[in-house]
Amino acid sequence: MRTRKLRGLTVSEIGMGCMGFSHGYGRIPDEEYSIQAIRAAYEHGCTFYDTAEVYSPNLEGIGHNERIVGKALQPMRRDVTLATKLFLPTDEARRDGVYATLRHHLEGSMRRLCTDYIDLYYLHHLNPDVPVEQVAEGMGRLIEEGLIRAWGLSNVGVRAIAKAHAATPVSAVQNIYSMMERDCEESVIPYCMEHGIGVVPFSPIASGFLSGKITPRTRFEQVDDVRNVVPQLSRENIAANQPLVEILRDYAARKHATPAQISLAWMLHKYPNVVPIPGSKNQSRILENLDAANVELTADEFASLERALDSCAIHGYRGCVEIE
């Protein structure tokens, strides 16, 4: 697979979001299946894996996903880029200081991931009680100490990115971005392109909607399935958004691809600094997503697709970017 840059990090141009092995999409797979799926992705060319300390089943506490990812990738650790994320609790930051809190959470993640460094360490969400500049300075110390190679922000807008970047250069911003959620195109992606920052879209297939496999008759699992609360996936909005699916099916037929692959190929063609991390707990779907790297849109095809998308109304805007 071709590679892209997240500032100084070289990663496969499509990465893998690993959350589904622990949380968010109903019943989780057996650990051994999850490990084999992650390794299959590596054999398929993926070198970029995303997790977070909070990705865990409801009753199993912190770090479940990190442990699975750590076990799976330990044999090839030096050949992959590991990204994980922390929440910054106000009480800990006030009691121990921002840097000490960052380091405490980082050390826990490193233990669970079976590694002595993290390639890309994100602040999962902004904490309004802690200035982002202080977080940036703490991340800078972790970089100087060799504990992380780079740092990033998630769920943020340009103002926060700019404040953080001025203190310690940001390598990646992880925001929601797909054909159904294009707010990032207004300012975040242009700012990041101008300043050499990678953009790592989560939910790039819109929680599976852009695969074309979700219909108004689809029933999601009742326990721990985020799709039950995604506005675009209400029964009414699934029906209303079918014109977008038809656009993707048309291009998929022309390109001998799948709708999901077309949606990923579109963003890869559009922005050189974008590295999507589609997530799935199904191995065949994971490999299908990675194969989107083999789908090439011509300039005319891309322009035609852009026009079709611009004329297509989206129902059930999700939008969870924090602007400050």
From TrEMBL:
GO molecular function, one term: oxidoreductase activity
Domain NADP-dependent oxidoreductase, residue spans: 13-308
Sorted UniProt keywords: Oxidoreductase
Superkingdom as given in the UniProt entry: Bacteria
A GO cellular component entry from the record: cytoplasm
InterPro entries from the UniProt entry: AKR, Aldo-Keto_reductase, NAD(P)_OxRdtase_dom_sf, NADP_OxRdtase_dom
PANTHER family cross-referenced by the UniProt entry: AFLATOXIN B1 ALDEHYDE REDUCTASE, ALDO-KETO REDUCTASE
Protein name: Aldo/keto reductase
The organism of origin for this protein: Bifidobacterium lemurum
